[in-house]
Amino acid sequence: xxxxxxxxxKTWKLEDFKQSPALLVMFICNHCPYxxxxxxxxxxxxxxxxxxxxxxxxxSSNSVATHPEDGPQMMAExxxxxxxNFPYLYDEAxxxxxxAVCTPEFFLFKKSEEKCFELVYHGRFxxxxxxxxxxxxxxxxxxxxxxxxxxAIANSLWLIVGCTIKWHPQ
Length: 170
Hints:
Glutaredoxin, two-stranded antiparallel ribbon, 10 strands, glutaredoxin-dependent peroxiredoxin, PRX-like1, Thioredoxin-like_sf, EC 1.11.1.25
């Protein structure tokens, strides 16, 4: 990928992360109540990952035509407000390449000798939901701890619950 980061103005490419042993790609946005519910926990997980050398990137693919609150300017403000230490990138179509359908949705890739990165986890952060009364535990996030037991999570898909990605009308 080659996507812009609204906060810094830098364009990030997959090659920028090739030295990392793993890469967590999170499809998030500003307005989704499921993401809002997890923003502080996402920032904390990203901090823990970066201390282990794992690269983290957030991507918003929501259309600014239908959801201007998810646009680049507001993304930069959110990144500052929540202290995101990861690039929070914008692209209205990129999620389709991953097969992502909602926010929040997590993809963890490990470094692979055959490929740049290999998918080892696709799913949710945990079982908490807004107004559910369930605490934010990061239970599924803790499954993503690095180093991780690849055999335990390979080809896993945990039910993803959230807001559908708001595709550009065209």
